[in-house]
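Lecture notes, continued. The same structure-token format from the folding unit now serves as the input rather than the output. Read the line below as a description of shape only.
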């Protein structure tokens, strides 16, 4: 079976970096994603990254940053305060990219450029 997602949105807050008890690096955040066919509708998706990907996310992106996340959809089960079993879905990132970037004056610095309208990318012929 295939479980792969590529999604572009803006971070709703600065990503949070944490470490597990075994020393693994983890970053979490949330993406706001506008629906291309209905731009007045925004969906919010939790994201999680590990290791180098987590470090890259927290070092290079902040609230409002536009990013592309590649990864898989995962589910986590938990019990809420009322004792009810719940399931939450999130995106487990395998890679994170700047959308449509161009080099600035220094080759190791990147700046975002204007994004095309998403509806233009997906219009049917």
């Amino acid at each position: 079976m295939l479980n792969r997602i590529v999604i572009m949105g803006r971070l709703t807050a600065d990503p949070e970096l944490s470490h597990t008890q075994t020393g693994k690096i983890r970053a979490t955040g949330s993406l706001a994603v506008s629906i291309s066919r209905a731009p007045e509708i925004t969906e919010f998706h939790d994201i999680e990254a590990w290791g180098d990907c987590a470090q890259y996310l927290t070092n290079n992106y902040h609230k409002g940053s536009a990013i592309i996340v590649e990864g898989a959809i995962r589910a986590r089960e938990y019990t809420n305060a009322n004792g009810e079993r719940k399931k939450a879905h999130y995106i487990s990132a395998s890679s994170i990219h700047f959308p449509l970037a161009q080099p600035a004056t220094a080759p190791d610095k990147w700046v975002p450029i204007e994004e095309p309208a998403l509806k233009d990318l997906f219009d049917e012929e």
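Point for the exam: Residues 51-60 form the longest helix (10 residues).
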